[in-house]
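step=predict obj=RNA polymerase sigma factor (Sigma-70 family) n=194
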Amino acid sequence: MTNADDGTVPALVARARAGDQAAWDRIVELHAPLLRAVCARHRLSAADTDDVAATVWLRLVERLGTIREPAALPGWLATTTRNECLQLLRTRNRNVPMDGDDVVDDAPTADDWLVREERFIALRQAFTQLSEKCRRLLSLLFTEPPMPYSEISGMLGMAVGGIGPNRMRCLETLRRTALIAPLLDDRQPGRSRR
């Protein structure tokens, strides 16, 4: 039995790339529970889970030929599923009810708009005070659609395991800038200033 004939993930990927439907079916059979588990962590309904899974399998079909590390396929599937779950939840939260009785008039007033604009300007100015490393990291982390940590790691030359801790440090630095700290204190009564 050659390496491409065994049942390992790299062998299955190689066979699926070559058009072997049985290999593709086996990939789906092996990894469908992983996709369902990720969807369950996001508390998706069965219908939403099916939609997310279909989208993830489509993404795999589109990118099967570009996967450089076939052994990492389970991680790729988990990350892609998580991103699709988050995208679905973001889209759902943006939907506006069509029944006029359910609509609450929460349109911002001129004062609300002015406060929001002032905060946005303060945030933009505070962002420029961060180190280049923090600005690049935060910019990549908050792109739409979300970028996988593995891509960010490659772009910044930073270990994947270091991205989360660095993000936390950068956000804490941003929160403590002279422009942002007072805004946070105003929004959280009883919070002491440092």
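step=describe
The chain has two domains: 3-94, 109-187.
step=end
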